[in-house]
Design brief:
The complex is a heterodimer of chains A (315) and B (245). Chain A is mainly alpha-helical and 315 residues long. Helix content of chain A is 76%, strand content 0%. In chain A, helix 1 runs antiparallel to helix 6, helix 6 packs antiparallel against helix 8 and helix 7 runs antiparallel to helix 8. The N and C termini of chain A lie far apart (83 Å). Helix content of chain B is 38%, strand content 26%. In chain B, the strands form 2 sheets. Chain B has a 6-stranded mixed β-sheet with strand order 6-7-8-3-9-10, with helices on both faces. In chain B, strands 2-1-4-5 form a 4-stranded antiparallel β-sheet, with helices on one face. The longest helix of chain B is centred in the last third of the chain and has 16 residues. Classes of the chains: A mainly alpha (315), B alpha/beta (245). Chains A and B meet through helix 5 and helix 6 of A and helix 2, helix 3, helix 4 and helix 5 of B.
């Protein structure tokens, strides 16, 4: 038990000394993960959309060649960035740029390098997710859009992508959560994220385990909040599960848009047989009403004035 | 003589080595209501989909007001906006409400304003009896209602020809009536319609011309009376006998 109280004390001590740097780390981690995921999604959508441009044998050869080329380039991009560790990609870019430009070019800030690496990496994963999302939308939707004369771009923008986006929301969420955690490898190029705060803190205090506990709790809180938020967004996207019926203005019936109801039904004004049945119905109702009235008058004689007055009013 | 809108010449379509349509010749005049009947797999739907370029014909030509729409440089999207289509599986846009479904084409394809599109959409939604449901989403309404919205969506584009691809085949029996009712009323307004259907009563009562297809060719065509009361070809007689039971 006293190990736990010791841990508590150590954490309090750590927090007192390095609390601000932990919080700054949290902030930087979240910003990097968020910006990286958003840019990554943009890249992913671009690749996914370019990847699914249809072409037929009737298209001009130049168009077919370009579409093929695009698919090959995207394929290579996806395979390279999905197939290498992000920590290496960070090193590769951060030190590669000055190496190749003989130090005349370098990343002015570690932020730029980190955001680029995370975005490109996320984009590689998202490219495949978006492609899957687009394919998973019922082909009937495309046909419906084409049938009213939409071009491929219009079909994509207004019909397919909104539905694909909804389908891959869980994937985007996944990527965001992965990015919250995996941006920790950016310490390799000196990015001041949450994990870098841990390294700084233990370097001075040697309180490895208490600091790791803080980190664990911190990352878990971030990811839990993120999944909660994503569920909420998904729910928002699905929209309301109910709808309101709209009362139609009865005057529109006279505006020439009203077509006569079913022939040979009692409501048909043109069908003499049906009209007769409506008239019969009306007559029957009138007789009933008169009978009820007679009964009412009979009752009237038996009851006091006030009661019948009220009933008259009711009627 | 009324104006010819569509003329199909020597149209063939094959999927791989499977020849689905063979040398189809066929015209649609303004105001025609044509029913295409035939057994499953006879190529009825493929013919309709070829006319709307959802399937690319393998050979032959389709003339729309005398212009071949299969020629290089013709714009399929523009052509399709003049030819409405109603699908067996409705194909309403799932990410939009009923009203938005009927507006999006007018706004994006015909470049109409929002207010104008809405007024137009409401007119047709009222005609098919779906005006109260404008805020519903496709997943919240029944099959028959979806199909009525799909008809309103096609009508809102002001098409010259309306193609129906088995519009009642995916519906529960009790919903078939409401859709057929809407189509009957449409036919009375004089719009040009091309209907692939298994509803023989509809084909007989409503259409001006009935086309019987069998194994990828037009086997027999004529007025409903000619085809249903005095069929000439043995295939047609066989096919119709199955419906008389």
């Amino acid at each position: 038990m006293n190990r736990f109280s010791q841990l508590g004390l150590d954490i309090v001590r750590l927090w007192g000394k390095y609390g601000n740097s932990y919080l700054l780390g949290v902030k930087n981690t979240l910003i990097l993960a968020l910006v990286g995921t958003l840019l990554g999604c943009l890249i992913g959508f671009l690749c996914g959309v370019l990847n699914t441009i249809p072409y037929t044998k009737n298209d001009p050869p130049l168009k077919r060649f370009f579409l093929c080329l695009i698919r090959v380039v995207i394929r290579v991009y996806v395979e390279i960035f999905r197939g290498t560790p992000m920590v290496l990609q960070a090193v590769f870019f951060y030190y590669g740029l000055p190496y190749f430009s003989n130090n005349s070019l370098r990343f002015s800030s570690v932020w730029a390098a980190a955001i680029i690496v995370v975005s490109i990496n996320t984009g590689a994963y998202m490219a495949e997710s978006v492609r899957g999302g687009i394919i998973s939308v019922d082909p009937g939707q495309t046909e419906g859009a084409k049938a009213i004369g939409m071009t491929h771009v219009q079909t994509m923008t207004y019909v397919i992508l909104p539905q694909a986006l909804r389908n891959i929301m869980p994937q985007i969420g996944n990527n965001f959560i992965i990015n919250v955690k995996d941006t920790s490898v950016m310490f390799i190029i000196g990015f001041p994220d949450f994990f870098a705060a841990h390294r700084a803190a233990v370097g001075a205090s040697y309180l490895y385990f208490p600091s790791a506990t803080v980190e664990m709790a911190g990352y878990l809180t971030m990811t839990l909040l993120a999944s909660f938020l994503l569920r909420w967004i998904e729910k928002k996207m699905d929209g309301s599960s109910s709808y309101e019926l709209v009362q139609v203005d009865s005057l529109t019936m006279t505006a020439g848009t009203y077509s006569f109801p079913d022939r040979s039904s009692p409501f048909d004004e043109r069908n003499p047989e049906a009209v007769k049945s409506v008239q019969r119905e009306a007559l029957r109702r009138q007789i009933e009403r008169e009978e009820a009235l007679c009964q009412g008058q009979r009752a009237e004689t038996r009851r006091d004035r006030g009661m019948t007055d009220r009933r008259e009013a009711d009627r | 003589m009324s104006e010819t809108i569509l003329q199909v010449n020597h149209l063939s379509k094959s999927f791989g080595s499977n020849l689905v349509l063979r040398d189809i010749d066929f015209t649609v005049d303004k105001g025609d209501v044509i029913s295409i009947i035939g057994a499953s797999g006879s190529g009825k739907s493929t013919l309709l989909r070829c006319i709307n370029l959802l399937e690319m014909p393998s050979s032959g030509e389709i003339l729309y007001h005398g212009r071949n729409i299969l020629a290089h440089g013709s714009k399929p999207a523009q052509y399709r906006s003049h030819v409405g289509m109603v699908f067996q599986s409705f194909n309403l846009f799932n990410n939009m409400t009923v009203l938005e479904n009927c507006i999006v084409g007018q706004q994006r394809v015909l470049k109409r304003g929002r207010a104008e599109s809405e007024a137009h959409a409401m007119e047709f939604l009222e005609r098919v009896g779906m005006a109260p449901y404008i805020n519903a989403r496709p997943r919240q309404i029944s099959g028959g209602q979806k199909q009525r919205v799909a008809i309103a969506r096609a009508l809102a584009m002001g098409p010259e020809v309306l193609l129906f691809d088995e519009p009642t085949s995916a519906l529960d029996p009790e919903m078939v009536g409401e859709v057929l009712q809407v189509m009957r009323r449409l036919a009375e307004t004089g719009i040009t319609m091309l209907v692939v259907t298994h509803e023989m009563a509809f084909a007989r009562d409503v259409s001006h011309r009935v086309v019987y297809m069998s194994q990828g060719v037009i086997c027999e065509q004529g007025t409903p009376d000619e085809l249903f009361s005095h069929p000439k070809k043995p295939e047609t007689i066989d096919f119709l006998a199955r419906f008389r039971g």
